Amino acid sequence: SVGKSTLLNRLTNAKSKIAAYQFTTLTVVPGMMEYRGAKIQILDLPGIIEGASSGKGLGKRVLSVARNADLVLLILDVFNPHHSALLKKELGNIGIRVDEKPPDLVIEKTSSGGISVNAQVKLKKISESMIKDILRVYGIHNARVIVREDLTDEQLIDVLAENRTYVSSLTVLNKIDLVNQGFINEVQDSIKTDFIPISADATINIEALKEAIFNKLNFIRIYMRPRNGEPDYKEPLITRNGSTVLEVCNKIHRNIKDEFRYAMVWGKSVKFGGQKVGMNHRLLDEDVLTIVKK
Ligand SMILES: Nc1nc2c(ncn2[C@@H]2O[C@H](COP(=O)(O)OP(=O)(O)OP(=O)(O)O)[C@@H](O)[C@H]2O)c(=O)[nH]1
Ligand SMILES: [Mg+2]
Fold this sequence. Notes:
Helix content is 27%, strand content 27%. It has 294 residues and is α/β, with parallel strands linked by helices. The protein has 3 domains: 4-100 and 164-216, Rossmann fold (3-Layer(aba) Sandwich), CATH 3.40.50.300; 105-161; 219-293, Roll (Ubiquitin-like (UB roll)), CATH 3.10.20.30. Strand 1 (29-35) and strand 2 form a beta hairpin. The chain has a 5-stranded mixed beta sheet with strand order 11-10-14-12-13. The protein has helices spanning 4-11, 59-65, 83-93, 128-137, 153-161, 181-190, 206-216, 245-252, 256-259, and strands spanning 29-35, 38-44, 71-77, 96-98, 105-109, 115-119, 143-147, 165-174, 196-197, 219-224, 237-240, 260-266, 275-277, 287-293.
């Protein structure tokens, strides 16, 4: 096996079972990684084998955990680096798109008039009549479609099927303690995706991996400021990029949102310092936030 459980135990406080034989981990084992003030939950999954998406092994149920993840770590064995294509394929088969963006397309349903297609770029991979045909298959007979990207029929179906999720990934090459640098370079030449070389067992590059996970998740720092007090620059509240005031409130105390009157913000997300904002205001890195209660 590639060493997923060994890595989970190295990154977090978890004690997932480790063994030399395959299929040691049979369920999802959680662990908490603390890094630079952020608490990041990491889930160790059973290994994914070919055919997992069609129900082989622990299959679908395991794969669907990845659907709600903010980031997927694809762990490869240094002697089997081409496994990464299979992992992405199996995830793709159940609607999880790894490192893809949803296509740039708007479908506006109308009550009559048939389907009109307004392509703002030259379409090479799909024809306008094909777009119309596919829409009809999905029961849409009247719509305005604006296409801003040369998409494929598969991408259009992704949008219409509405059960696709898009997650980003980091590829990790484990067990580098067993090879030399020349071997790692050869692996890099033979697979196109970049990876982070580590050894979970010999603790090589674990800090670099933590840093990469932290950066990929795009955290921001919010400095809380008590009313009429000074901002706490020492211990920022760490939250995901794009978080709203409400989401930050929920991190501080469950009941704060019931007592919430308004918030005041200083920083990049507002036009002027001390601007009053509501619960749905989106914060940016290094904003200063004061919550005013009822
Ligand atoms: N040499 C070396 N061995 C490792 C490394 N990481 C894990 N191993 C060994 O690889 C074997 C499998 O490790 P596990 O962590 O159980 O692998 P897993 O991916 O969780 O396996 P499953 O749960 O069965 O899918 C164990 O014998 C580990 O000691 C490493 O970095 N280097
Ligand atoms: Mg395991």
